[in-house]
Amino acid sequence: MLLTTLILLPILPIIHTSSAAKIEWNRTYGGKSFDAIESVIAVPDGFVLAGSTYSFGDGSKYSDAWLIKTDKEGKELWKLILRSGIATSLVKVEDGFVVAGYDYSDKSAWLVKVKVGEESGFGFGIKAGIAGLAALALVLILIALRRRG
Known about the structure:
11 strands
């Protein structure tokens, strides 16, 4: 198979194309309210998407951060509500994923570690603002450098 490209559109579908730009599959995720995908990574058995949802979660006026795991054809395998907020990026680590995001309700930035196969993780907040976002960026850079060895 030739090089593939993953395209995200604002209405949440994922479209998988070949190098000749022929659509191989198209999936849409979410519920009846506003939902958004902010980040996606490819994993050996499919994709992991991170974003926010108003359709699922605690039903408050704020969105909830969520992860979606799909197979290679984009079929949803599981979804996980992480906490209040928006998941903006994620990286694969040895035993799961580290997800970064922010929360409008308490104005904080956060990281959550999710172990594969478990619907729980641990997280900590960093107060938002320039210093908080800079600290979050530094943590993500260190994680990326560690992955490279």
